[in-house]
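Regression report. Comparing outputs from two consecutive submissions.

Submission 1:
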Amino acid sequence: MDVSPPLAESTPRASSAPPLSSSACPLCGDARPGTPAVVTSLYPTEYLRRCLRCGRRSTIGPARPFLLSSCADCGIPFLTHGGDPESRPRCADCSAGRFPSDLPDRHVAEATERELVLALERVWAFVRAPSLSVYLDRLVEQIRSHMDTGLTASGVALFEDARYWTLALPSGRVLLSLGTLSGLEDEAELAFVLAHELAHASSIDASARLVRLGLRIVTQGQRAEIAGSWSDAAHDAIRVGYGRAREREADRRAFHAIVSMGYDPRSVLAYLRRVGGLVEDGDPRVAELALAHPLPAERVRWLEAEMTAVPAGRAALRVNREVFRRAAGQEALLARLERVDGVQPAATESDGDTPAERRHRTLWLAVSLVLVAVLLAVAAWYLT
């Protein structure tokens, strides 16, 4: 089945929210509308937004607003009425020692990933194109070799959604929305997005967040079925991210990975500035991305500082715009995408061969063998 943009959003249970928030930020008092409001499964009765001035996240509504922080220990987001934004916030469970310090171990993470994949296959429309899958899997494998991730798997699974959604599974598999892919302009930008997710997975951010969010939502009993709770956990990981410190570290690692691969770092800054424009305009496609990550302008400042460590006049700065356009541009997506049952295994190079390509290669092989035979015959005649 062909998939044709524009793409419909696969709306999860806890995503209905007003498009923009208008109440003043409880921290800095800025009265401008913040980012589009988002509802999470963890806090289903609260609308959450990020201030466009100070960058802090808070609830909106008639009641006294809460601030949203991420626990420095377990990574789970929690609501509070105050706190120093520069401190290491801790949730009530970690402060009281109620959260096991050894979670997640490998077996728990693997079991969590299986549950998540099964749950997401029920609510997301996964798609693939053989040549595109080969391109994405090959690129993510190259990134892994420059990041020393220690992950057990790689590859990219695409799903049909117009929003800028990405999620790293604990094993290292990256789930990427077509909306995210359509918002990129070259391979350097794509490499940064993938490397950012691999950084989360390799630092166990993905394992810790998904395991603990899943367990928390399951125990809250908001869903009659367990599968729905695990898909809610995946959606919440996308909506609220990993906290400012973890997101900054993922940006740093991703940035230096693509620089080591010879990509032009200025392309990353251009991508973040474009996202910043969408955030400022209140574009609903970036609502979750804006809530989960620090403001794009702040991320640009971080990476501009990292650029001072990049050697001046570095050779072979590339973006591979034409390669990206042929493999993953809009025309390529319209022509090649097909629906699949779920998360597919990583593609191999042979997966990208069409019957016509195989016939073409066989023909050239036969012609080459004939030419070699002719040359050998001529050489033998000449030597005699």
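Submission 2:
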Amino acid sequence: MTQAVGPLLGREQDLAKLDALVRAGNVVVLYGPVGVGKTVLLHALARRARQRGIPCGLVRRTAALSDFTQALMHAYPRVATEGTQRQLRGRLRMAVERRPGLLLFDDLGRTGTAFKGAIRSVRGTGLGVLFAADVDEPRDHDRIRALGLSFHEIELRPLHGNSMRALLQSLLDDRVLAGTVTPEHLRALVAATNGLPGRAVDFADALVDAAAWRGGAPRIEWLRTGAVIRAAERYRQPVELV
């Protein structure tokens, strides 16, 4: 297997496991903290599916029945859209039965009865469904489980050690930085990521700016705080600098 590069470094086994599960027609919830790399994996799965000619739809946020319909329309763009929404979903259902594909749902929120009913309606068709959910504390996990959407749960854990070091180094190598990252700086930056690839990407992006440096060294706490704020804004969550 060719080693992944960039944000997929260290996630090769996770990607292979998810790929096998969804292509087998399972419903899966991928969960983990904000910034751990769930969205990157969803996009990697979508690329794999399209390269293989497998119908695939991906939506950025997940809550309403319209999100389900949108994902199906992305996966089966040749289905006629005229008529009522019920008629459209009926034609999409027939397209699924003819050629099962994958639906990938990012940022799983509180779903209504209609959405859950739609997911149940495609079980047994061979359609693979993957939800990505932010779980930063136990109550988040309880909320996701209460939705009753998944047969399989996969926890995406933070990266540590050599995997995170290699990921951060590859990200830094791809950018023209405003300073020189020494081995000591790299160790401090790796520790400040808390194993979150999304934070490593934020660090690398910020270090191209001279404002991210002081006295020839990266401003570690400034970078860390900025990454937490950006993650909170991106996912509409309260900021907790812990």
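Expected: both submissions complete independently.
Actual: both completed, but the second showed a warning that disappeared on reload.
Relevant detail on submission 2: Residues 162-233 form one domain.
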